[in-house]
Amino acid sequence: GQNIDQPTEMTATxxxxxxxxxxxxxxxxxxxxxxxxxxxxAPTFLSYNVLDGLEEKGRFSSFLSRSKGYSYLLLKExxxxxxxxxxxAVRGPGGSYIPTFGRGTSLIVHP
Amino acid sequence: GAGVSxxxxxxxxxxxxxxxxxxxxxxxxxxxxWYRQSLGQGLEFLIYFQGNSAPDKSGLPSDRFSAxxxxxxxxxxxxxxxxxxxxxxxxCASSFMxxxxxxxxxxxxxxxxxxxxx
Lengths: 111, 118
Fold this sequence. Notes:
The complex is a heterodimer. By secondary structure, chain A is mostly beta strands. Helices cover 0% and strands 58% of the residues of chain A. In chain A, strands 2, 4, 5, 9, 10 and 11 form a six-stranded mixed beta sheet that branches. A five-stranded antiparallel beta sheet of chain A has the order 1-3-8-7-6, with no helix packed on it. In chain A, a hairpin with a 7-residue loop joins strand 9 (84-91) and strand 10 (99-101). Chain B is an all-beta fold. Chain B has no helices and eleven strands. Chain B has strands at residues 5-7, 10-13, 19-24, 31-37, 43-50, 53-56, 65-69, 75-79, 88-95, 108-109, 113-117. The interface between A and B is medium-sized, with 24 and 25 residues.
């Protein structure tokens, strides 16, 4: 099975940097996703990591360490519109293409 | 199509009634997934379709839940004899499975159907 842990809620100031952590315990690993979900809306894809290291995409970066079962999403130059829930999802081994989602981290950005 | 669409967007029903939720995936996407999201909870996997077949339906919570997909496109999720604990947002996602290693396939989500069972 898979167990995914992320903080329930975080707050940060507009213009700052915030790091949202995700730890996982899985029987196998085939990639980790980060999604953004605004209240009342569908999750939208942010990033995918399958190899160790940092993937940078504009203001958002995602890091993965497979040996530590650890990932983080880094958001720079925070904007008010970044207030949302951030979902970490891990895909299992072999033919199991269905990702398991964490409960999400609710990020509140204040002025 | 432009994206994944779902209907209805909202559904209020009485306990004991049957409901049918519809998902139209992105054209050409062979994989389709149903999830359920309750308030403050993560996405709970329900069922996965590859084409018209469902290789994994392990997440369906009871035999009151069933789903089908026809023509490799539209899918319907049916909940019979609804209960109050079925109240949730039901999300559908699709992805384009390439080759034998679709590990990197991104799921594209629909807007969801908000179901309230009174």
